[in-house]
Every structure is written in C-alpha cells, then in structure tokens.
Amino acid sequence: MKSFLRAGVAGFLFTGVFLFASGASVARSSTAAEPMFTQYARIYESPTLNFRTEYFKDKPMEEMTGFDGYTLSLNFTYPFNDRSQLRVLMPFYTDGNGTYDNPGDRADGAHVNVKGYGGVLEFPSVIYERRFGWLEGKTGANVAWLAGAGRRLDTLKVRDGGTEVDRFNHTGYNFQFGLKMDSDIRQGDMTLLGNLRYVGYLDSDDINLSSGGGTQFGVLYTTGAVKFNNYGRFTPVVEAILEADFSEYTAFSLAPEAIYTIKDDFDVKLAVPFRLTSDGQQYAIDVDLTYRF
After folding, report:
1. How far is CA 227 from CA 49, 94, 186, 224, in A?
2. CA-CA-CA-CA torsion for 172, 175, 179, 184, nearest 10 degrees?
3. Structure pTM?
4. 140-192 pLDDT, tens digit each
5. Strands 48-57 and 84-100
6. Helix/strand/coil for 210
7. Residue 123, burial from CB neighbour count under 10 angstroms (0-12, 13-18, 19+)
8. Domain count, the chain
9. Do 130 and 110 touch, CB atoms closer than 8 A?
10. CATH number for the domain including 15?
11. Enclosing domain of residue 255
12. What are phi and psi of 188, to 5 degrees?
C-alpha cells in the first residue's frame, strides 16, 4: 500500500521534472479546453461553468457491492485575477442500484436502490487556488496550490423495494489540499498536466473505500494527462488516475478522452475511465459540458 502512495507522489514529481526539463514557457491564463480529471494550474481567463454526468459501474462504497448508477454535478470557477481563483463544486444528485452489504442487518444481501441529493465521495465544496509565481520562474511550468472544505448536501437513502433500510453519510464533512502543474511542450502541440490532491473525510459513515474503515479517512488522488492540441476543434486526451487511501484500497485507471470545442467558449467532453486494478470502479462514462462566460 505504501509503495503505491510513494509511486503516486513520485509520478507527480516526475511530471514536474519533465516539465522543467522541457523548458516550456509559462502561460498566464487559459481559455483552452481542459481535461476532465486533471486541471490546469494556470488561472482561467473568465468565469467557467461545468455540468457533468457520470454513469458508473461498480463504484466502491463500504456498505454496497456492485453499485451501478449515475451522478450529476456542477463546477463553477471564478478567477479573481491572473494569480488566484475560487472553485465551487456541487455534486447534486446520485441514483444507483447494488447489493446491500451490511452483515447482521435484516436487509443484508438485498438488491437495493441508493438515491439522494449529493455525490458519494464528492461533497459540495469551496476551493481556493493560487499560482506559485516564484516557483513558476524556476521550473518553467505553471504551478499552483489549492485548499478547500466541503460538507455533504444530504444523506443517500437506501431502499429495499419501497422500504428505507439505511442512510449513507449522515453528517459528512471533508477538507482538501493539493498541488497542480501544467505546461505546453513541442511548441504548443501538446500539454502535460499533473495534479496531486489529498481529501480528508470526517464523520462520513458508510462510504469508506476500505471495509470497516470507520468514519474518518483520507484519500490521495494523483492524476496526470497528456493533451494533444493540433487537431483543430477536436482534442484527444489520455489521463491516468491513481486513488489510494491509507489502509487497503489502491485503484489505478486510464481514461481515454475526446474534447470537441463547438465554439471558443463552449466544449463538449467525453471520457471513459476504466480500472487496471482489482480496486476501483470497473468503468465509467463521463460527459461534461463546459461554458466560459
């Protein structure tokens, strides 16, 4: 487990070394299409709204197995200047079905529906992001830090037929901090991006990624992306996603992705992340609409 965490950190640092070695120029801000899971370190030029639908297969959750369904979410980012911005995350609805896994409960083993206003591990959150100006000058890449906090919007109600048998995430809170890097290389034909983000969960029952892991836990997310910029309005992307807690859960996924820019201020994105490990959701289909004001 620790080796995977070290690998995630090493991968992020490797991205930084590669960006530094490329000698790429630092951009002040961006209206370019952004990958779905790995964000730019550079600050947006204008307020940006994302609407995302995720259809997932076998999403991990402490008291569910074979959990399939969908989540709807919004993401609004407001730049204050070319150094800082505020991001508001709002996962607002989840609906799925799976097998209830709670030994000793009368509904254990039943095929149940899980539905509610919010996400599973994604909470409504406010996140502040700021660029490291002094570090950018030394690395030749865009570098930023982030910090934020969130709280679950509502419980996820578990129903066996029409009977409510449980509620997930009665009082959940979270906090997060991390680093982001990006840079254009090969005269702008490609963009490399890397994110490292830790999310700590407090009083978040029934959603731990490790079985019997309790209500307080943390998850380290390491993501990297290669974006190919020389195909006009069509932008191919390949992303890698590593998720690990500090117990028994480690998941690695690849996500081929396509972005189509309908207008300069409007993108449509499609990604299909799939796991390469036994942990993690089996696959997902993510559709994202991005509008820049």
Report:
1. 21, 30, 12, 10
2. 50
3. 0.85
4. 889 999 999 999 988 999 999 889 999 988 788 999 999 999 999 988 899 99
5. unpaired
6. coil
7. buried
8. 1
9. no
10. 2.40.128.130
11. 2-292
12. 90, 0
